[in-house]
Amino acid sequence: MWQRPQHLLSRAVKHYDVLIIEEPIFKPGITPHMDLSDRPQGVTIAVPMLPEGLAHEDVVAEQHDLIEKLIGREASKTRVFWYYTPMALAFSSDLECDLCIYDNMDELSLFRGASQELLSLENDLFSRADLVFTGGMSLYEAKRNRHRSVHAFPSSIDFNHFSKARGVKQDPADQAQIPYPRLGFFGVIDERLDVDLVAQVAELRPDWQFVMIGPVVKIDPASLPQRPNLHWLGGKSYDELPQYLSGWNIGVMPFALNEATKFISPTKTPEFLAAGVPVVSTAITDVVRPYGEKGLVEIARSVEELVEKAELILARPRESWLAKVDRHLAAGSWDKTWASMHKLMLDVTGDTVADRPASSLPVYATTPAE
């Protein structure tokens, strides 16, 4: 997945050395070690490789030892820790850093299978963090009183990448034979997606084709509804997405309204819009505000209303809507988001951009695997 962490930390390399520590991979009979690899964006990925069968406390201890060996307990120069999950605090809390950031992109405690440790570790992380960023306004409102310096940075947009969909003329091979009209979704397919809603709409409109792109996570793939007009195409690379979106009449965001979606701010909302694809979404708070209120996205609160809003989109001209979309999207970008975050970081440390040469400060980021 190429999402918020990748967008931000690939931009951080302009100012910092970036090491991303991922969740461990378990294999039988191996000696614990750190698998290091460099990515084209300029970041280094570190994956703890651990033997299968370890107890939970041993998994934590091994991760701690591998990270300490890699970066040292004490910082030899200014060091920043950038957290995406409080669970990483369990194996890094005694390591020294000069600036601690919690980029809170989801309410992880409400996700299926969330650890009971997570809430207490998040309390500890709030105590330790110098800055807290949130991935949306509803999450900001929920967390703003838990820390002295909480800042909302909703999902932004790589406009140049997704706007390629407006000019692409050739369907990918696995989409080329799917008839029109096409309604498409891309993203992780997990408990946040209302697959029953998708199935009901597909049944009501058998002449509409639903193209579903993304990896299936935390739910049984066999539980996905099957119909002639439902096409589960699996995961695709970030680079491939504009080509798929170019062949869709409508983008659908059929999120369930449950605990796991209470505070989400879907990155795909502005991505659909940049691609020039009209969107109908369920009533996710951070989609209703501002996209629904501004008339950029249609909001549906039932199966029947989703069908009604989709029919409205299929019948209306796009020109005035697209002009309104472009005016809205012009106000933001991941570059602007990173620049604003970076300024806050420098304000805390007392530095200025001129004080610090490019690629001189290590940033250690721990991201949940998805």
Instruction: Tell me the quaternary state.
Output: single chain
Head-to-tail CA distance between termini: 7 Å
Order of helices and strands: HEEEEHEEHEHEHEHEEHEHEHEHHHE
Share in helix: 25-40%
Largest sheet: 9 strands, mixed
What is the alpha-carbon Rg in Å?
A: 22 Å
Strand fraction band?
15-25%
Overall, the morphology is: globular
User: Stretches where pLDDT falls below 50 for ≥5 residues?
Assistant: 356-370
What is the overall number of helices? Answer: 12
Query: Kindly state the mean pLDDT as a whole number?
Result: 91
Instruction: Find the count of extended strands (DSSP E, 2+ residues).
Output: 15
Helix/strand/pairing category: alpha/beta
Structural summary, described in words:
By secondary structure, this protein is α/β, with parallel strands linked by helices. 32% of the residues lie in helices and 19% in strands. The protein has helices spanning 4-12, 56-71, 117-128, 137-143, 159-162, 195-204, 241-245, 268-274, 285-292, 303-315, 319-329, 334-349, and strands at residues 16-21, 25-27, 33-38, 44-51, 80-83, 99-104, 131-134, 150-152, 182-186, 209-213, 230-234, 250-253, 279-282, 298-300, 361-366. It is globular and about 60 Å long. Mean pLDDT is 91; it is low at 356-370.
